[in-house]
Every structure is written in C-alpha cells, then in structure tokens.
Amino acid sequence: MTGHTTARQQQVAELLDALHTDGGVRVVTGEPGCGRTTFLKTAARLFRDGPVRHLGADRVRELDDALRTAATDGPLLVCVDDAHLWDAPSRAALGHAAARVRESGLPAVLLLTVAGHRPVDREFTGLPVLRLGPLTPGDAALLVEEATDGAVDPAVREELVTAAEGNPALLRASVQRLSPAQLAGARSLPRPLVDAEVLAGVAGGRLPGPPGECGDLLLTTAAAVRATGEEDADAGLVQRACGAVAEGPLPEVLARTEGRLRFRSALVGRAVYACALPEHRRAAHRALAGAAAEADGVLALLHRSWAVTGPASGLADALAAAAADPACPATPALRHHALVRAADLARDDADRARRNLAAAEHALLAGRASDARRLLDLARGPAEPASVRGGAELLRGAVLLADGPVDDARESFLLAAELLAPTAPHAAARATLGAADAAWSAGDPAACLSALAPTYAPPVTPLATACVRVPRTDTPEPSVVPAGSLAGGVGGSAAKTPRRCGQPSRRAARVGATAPRAAGIPSTAPVPDGGPPSGPPQGADVTRDHRDGMRAVLLGRFDLAAHPLRRVLERGLHGTDPATLLRSAAAALMLGEVTAARRAGARALAAARTSGSAALEPRALEYLAYAELRAGRHQLARTHAEEGLRTAERAGQRNTAAHHHAVLALAASIEGEVDLVCEHAEAALHTARRHGLAQAATLAHWAAARADLGAGRPREAAARLGPLVRPGARRGHFAVWMLAVPCFVEAAASAGRPQYAAAVVEDFALWAACGADPQAAAQLLRCRALLAAPDAADELYLRALGRHDDAGDFERARTELLYGKWLRRRRRLREARTRLEEARIGFERCGAGLWAQQAAAELRAGGAAPAAATEAGELARLTPQQLRIARCVAEGATNREVAFRLSVSTRTVDYHLRNVFATLGLRSRVELVRLVEQEEKTGARL
Fold first, then answer.
1. In what ranges is there compositional bias, type Low complexity (predicted)?
2. Over the chain, what is the mean pLDDT?
3. How confident is the model at residue 874 (pLDDT cuts 50, 70, 90)?
4. Is there a domain that residue 25 lies in?
5. What's CA 47's distance to the chain center, in Å?
C-alpha cells in the first residue's frame, strides 16, 4: 500500500526524529483498524540508529537488560504491541521502564501501542500519547487505488472513501466485498456500502451485549450520535431516554466530558448502531424523541423520523420546516442533518432537491465542505427550477472561493446571479458580490468592477483618473482585509474625510490606468445570510450598502463610499448575526476605524462559535488578525492567525488557510524568524499558485523580502520585491503591491541601487497625497530621504519622525534606524547614537529581534555598546520562536502538541528544539524544564 505507507512513513520518521529530544517514549493508540501494528513495523524498518527489539509480556524482563545495553552501546528501539493485553505486573514493569527512559535521557526509543476504544491503563498515564488519526481523503483514495490496482471508478472510489471515514481496515474490508463490476461502476453498489458485518469484523470483540445490560445505554448513545452526526451526545438527554440504566458506571467504551457522552472509538459507535436489530434502533430513537425538550423541535422530530418504518411525508414536512425556522436555536450541523433526513423522506424530486440545497447551505456553515459539495451535486440538474439551480451555484461559488480555484468560483457566482435575478434579487445581489470577491482574490480589478456594474453604476470617473489609494504600507500593521467582503483597509477614516482626492495629473492617469487600486486583501467566500436562496430578502440593505461602498472604493470615490460603509458598520454592531458582523468588520477596516474593526471581528468570532457556524470562525479570526496587524499588535495577530489556521484546516478552507499563513509570515518577518517566514510563505504560495490567489501570493513574497531585509540582505530583498512593485506583467496584486513599496525603496537604497526606486516612490506619493492614512505620509518622507541628496535628507528624516506620532513602534523604529545609519556615515556620532538607541528600544519593545540586532550593530560600529535592558537569564539567548517552544515543552507538551499549538510542522519544532538544547547545553527535556522553572523563579528576563 505505497500511498498509505508513504504517509505513515512520514509520520513515523517525524516521530523518530522528535524522540531524540523528546524523552524517547510514545504510547501509540487509535481506534480499531487504524493501523497500530503497521505503525510499529514501519518504525522498526525506518530505525537506522541501532538494533530493534520486539517484546511481549513473557519477555518483559529483557527490557531492563536492553536499557542497560543502550546506556553503553548506543541507541535502541523497543516495540511493544497491544500493551493493554499484558497482565497487571507486566504492565507495571513496562510503565516503570518507560518512566526511566523519559527521565534519564537514555539513548533508547520505546514505542508501545494500546487500544483506543478504552481508557489508557493507569500504568501508562502520564506518558506522552500519539493518537493515530484517520487517513486524509487523498491518502484514503490512494489506498483504494492500490487495493484495486487502479480498477476502480472515480465515483465508486469517492463513495468508498466517504463511507470508511478514514479507517484503513474498514476501507480494505469495503473494497474486498465489492465485485470487479461494482468497483468499475458497471453494477450498483450494496446499500449501505459499509454494513453491520463489515463494521463488526473490524471492531472485533468490542461490541456490547444485548439490550438490558449496558446495551441500552450504548445503543441510545449511538442513536443520538447517528441522528445528529456529532461526535458526542447530550448526556442528560441519553440519561432521560434510558432511565435507570444510565445511572450506573459507564462502559469502558464510553467517556463523559462536560455533560457530553462519546464513544472512545467512533467506529465502535457505528458498529453498535449497525449491529443492533432494527426494532431496537427504532425504540432508541423513540425514547430520545420523547426525552427531547420540545416535542416539535428539530431534535425530537429528527429522532421521530428515524423511528418510522414507512412513508411519512407529514413528518418530513414538519422536520424541514423546523430546520428552516430562523427562530429555532439549532446549530447549522443539526439543521444540515435534519434537512438531509427530510430530503430522504421527500414525496417528490422537487422537494428533495430544495431540501438538499438547504442542507448544503447549513453543511457549509457547519464547516463541512465535502458534505456541501455532495449535496449540491444532488440538487443540481437541468430539470430543476432556475431558483434551485441558481441557489446551488451560489453555494458552489462559496465553497470554491474558500477552497478552490477562484476563477471557477467567479463563474459559479455569475451563473447564480443570472439564474436568481428574476425570482430572488437579494440572492442575486449576494452572488454578484461573491463574483466580485472572487475577481478581487484573483487580482482582476476589471472583472471585479464588471461583476458589480449591473447593479450599480455611479456617474464617476474610474480610479484610472483618480488618485491612487491603497492600504497602509510596509508596516507590522498593513491595512489588509479578508475577503468575502471585498473590504479594503483604507488607511484613515473615509467617514472623517468624505471627499474625493483632487483631479489627477496626467501622471496619475497614466499610473492609474494600469489597474484600479483599492485597499484590502479579501480571501474567503461569502456566506449565506440565512434562509434558502429562494426565501425572502434578509439583510438586503446591508448587501446593497456593502456593494455600493465597495464599488465606490474601487472607483476611487471615497466620498461616496463613506456613508454606505458607515451604515454597514453600525447595523452589524447592533446585531448578533456573525455574517453581518463580518461585513461590519470589513466596513470598519475600509473606513480606517481599527478599534471598531477589532470589536466587530471579536463579536463575529463569538457569534460564530455560539451559533456553531464553523465556516465563519476562520473568517472572523482572519479579520481579527488583520485588524491587529493594522493596530501594530503583530503578536496578537499571530495568536489569532494560528487559531485561524487550525479552524480553516478543520473546515476544509485551504484558501482561508493560505491567508492565515500569509499573516503568520508577515508577523514572523517582524520578529526576524527567517525559517518560520519561509515555512509560512511557502505554504501560502502552494495554495495561491494552485487556486489563483494573487493577493496571498503577493503578501507571502513581501514577507519573505522583509525577512531578507531584517537579516541584512537588502540585495535579495530588492530582487524579490522589484517585480512586485514595478509596472509590468509580474506586478503584484493591484490592492496589495503598494504595501511593499517602502520596503522595496529601503532595500534598493541599501543595496546601492536607488535609481530603481524613484519611479515607484512617485506612484506611492499619489496615494499618500489623499491624506487618509496618517502613516503613509511618514513612510513617503522616509522613502524620499533614502533617495535624496545629503543636504535634503536630514530635514526629510526629521519630518518623517514628526509624522510618526500615530504609528506603531516597529515603523517608527525603522525610520530611527535608517536615520541613525545616515547620521553615523556622516560622522555625526552623538546624534546617531541617540537615534540608534531609540530604534533598538523600539524594536525590542515589539519583539523585532533581528531588527534590534541591526540597531545594536550600528551602535557598536559607531563606538557605543547598546545599553543593557535588564539582567537576562540563559533563556535570553534563544530566538523568540525557540523561547516559545521551550516554554511549551516546559509545560509538558509533546513536539506534535507544540506544532499544533504554534501552527507549524513537527519537523520545525524538532529543528528548533535541537537548537535550544545545543544553545543551552542541555541533554534532556527534564533539564529544560528545570531551567525554565529556575529562571521564572529568579525573575530573569525571558
């Protein structure tokens, strides 16, 4: 199974690499069929540092001898499979040996596997655990291809992958029960594709006894999970449905956490439900329906629908109506499952298509993009009404804009607008805004304006003959905005300055003709405002105002943009709908009101979490991350982006994840973490290239160039940025390239090539002349100082510093650094020291380590040593990323847990941790924990 083995090999290789600095022990667990034994075999095959021992309970005494040998002869790998089956004394001996390996730093690696459908034995508690998760859809598809020698129809392969839910043993068993004709798609597949026999075979002897023992509790829990599609069930509901049966101790296959019951193995839960008699399953659903809080609520009706044995069109209608009721408190995930069930029970194809479409909408909101795609395919067809086909294309565009080629998303949105215009004008307006989002994301301003033109055509001169206006440039707080809004970070408040910039010169017309430039970085898909596309208009005013404001921004008419955007902002802040709050956050960033943007983004995040709208969480975190960058709080931006990256990946939103990677690259470029910049920039570019994300690509390149500049490599930085900021086919995204202009000017001047930057500075001046962004004026003066003759540069630097009053620490410190360098080279050493010390302090205050080192080096070159900030401890020798990792490890986190927490790869954590050990002269994690605790107690500066 080459594809599957390759994925596991990578995981094993990373684990073995980590264990050299991670205590040498892992308890490997996972549900039945996940491949624990295969994992050990792969580890034994890949281990190259020394001998491998496989031990059973009858050979546990050999373990002490093996560890003593490792202490003298070198590395050793010990593999123990199914340690939970050992007797208690043998488990105790194994647990003691594992603790010795962790605490002593012996050159031994101990891997032991235990079943994941039951609690870990107390002898192994406290040891680091690695839980083998399900295969990714791509790896599962490869496994099917290899198991069938490629003789499988793509549609059949997709069904097998979906039904197996990432379990390799279940996937193989499902393939084996199909005939060659079924695999080729020539004969119909059995239904269900994964039946009780297959599930029981993989689950083995782990199923409960018949009802009357613990079986009632297990079956009722399984029925509750089956109906809602969630991972767990309300413990109170299950207890009420089971009565006295639920009052005893829980079976070991169940776990209770914060009022929720779950199966420790999802596969065991599926098997419990599938293997029960049909009448017992129906009885469990009836009991759950009776125990539900509201007899006519979605949950009660859903369980009643699973208890029927024949047609029940009235029940299906009631279930669909309850799921569509906006007043119902049900989550999008529950509405999705209710509507899917109502579609299954529909009386005709038209009802079935409408319900599948509505179910797809809620699946998308719940962060289940793959389910949404499948339901959209069911709802699409030439025989369906235009409103249904239009609604399907509207949602398909949203899915693609969050996780697919954005040009394809634009075409879906445009088709949706055409189909919906006659009967659902509000939905059609949302579709045109979505098409504009997609065009913006692709860096196509003409297509963006074209998408908006049919519904709005103000009598204004295009931006080609207006002044240039883009986000605040080259700072730790760029005025960038997530997509789905077409929002731009117009530097200052358009509400405060509701005017149009003066009529342009010929120069402005020539520059602007290349592409309209508005401010912002959209990235993600628009989300339905509630209700099916054919329903009544909801939020029509907000959509219209957002569209009008965005088009005015694109056309350079900021006087016309202010009032509609102000209405969008105020309406959202007075509500609780997460989608409307996201529009408010976008409008606030376009108005230049960062505080309001942060408030709207935080409320949108809270509202998304409260309502269960998993698709909106990554977007809300993206707005928050950009707003924090804009406010000069790059470390907070980093925190939001790290969480946003995790939620985007869980929701299947690769495009959104790419923008979070770009934010993390920008933040890391301020802190001087070059390897981290490279990792996040490359991750952003990987998706950007595949899906046409022009703005994410531009930001990633800019972050990499700024890292070069911070590391003292101006020539490399200028080479990266030149194509992005100069006119030509390779210029970056029309609303983003201006962000990098000050960085390019500094790089070109420092590399001795100022002549390449002169024309770009004039482009930048056109935007800065609008006066909306207080930071742009200071940046422009700094750029002019870098290119000016000596008799003019002094005054320009002083004027730039005078305009930095409202800027963040990082940007002001950059001007101080450049001015200090200029003064030192003219032998004005006393003035230079003052400026350079101010720069060093400013960089340290915002965590810009490499930049602070530049200032310190300039101070030393001028004959002065930088003042010591505080008495530093040993940990002060670490880089910011190394320090973060060291602290996580000191808290007991494993390398994989650290990687998850910091949104980096395990290999990156391994690399940094090895450098931590080398820098500090440590040999084990225990010594690192002691050092961190000691320095925290003594108050040394970390």
1. 510-519
2. 82
3. confident
4. yes
5. 33
